[in-house]
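call fold(seq) -> tokens
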Amino acid sequence: MFFELDVRLVPVTPYIIRARSGSRRRGVSFIKGSWSAEHIIPSSSVKGFLRGSCRVGLLMCGYPDARIDGLLERVFGGVSRKGSIRLIMRTPSVQVEEMKEGFTLDLSSTSGGGVLVEVSRTPVVFKVLIQEDVAPVLFFGFKAIDDGLARFGGFKSRGLGLMRVEARLGGINPGFSSERYLTFRKLIEEMSSLDFPTLCRTLSSNAILGSPASTK
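ret:
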């Protein structure tokens, strides 16, 4: 059974799309259409971010480190294995602005060195289709993002890339429908009646919102 979720990552702080030539730092990879000046974040970048976030979330809940790689490969795929998740981007393009490293917004100043970078405050919106038996893994990743433990893009140590997770259940989910996006914690609370036993059992435990649950 597949689980469908519409997700919106709302920037608390701007995230970096790329650094201008001369910077050795990498930001979020993107596609710039040859037909226009629009900046597009590909699903592969978001998928990679989610994979890293899930790793952080699983580590924080006490999941055995030796088993994490195998679990993430089952969800996101690997060299010889197809994953259990599909992402469909809903953000057609992002708006960018220039910003000097160190949060100096006076771009007319040439003193003090630093690098001009392109950042965005556009929410990243996408649809997730994931097999129900591995869906709990994704929610551990969402918690890591919502708690600020996983950040999007570059310059993470400078406070950039903090995101807030909002989501709503998609149309294929039985017993629940919502037109509005909910905060991550509110979504967990309102999912208790869903007909997804494995997912709901995990989400209702202390592993997601409270103290780490035992994974033995």
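Residues 2-15+29-95+124-204 form one domain.
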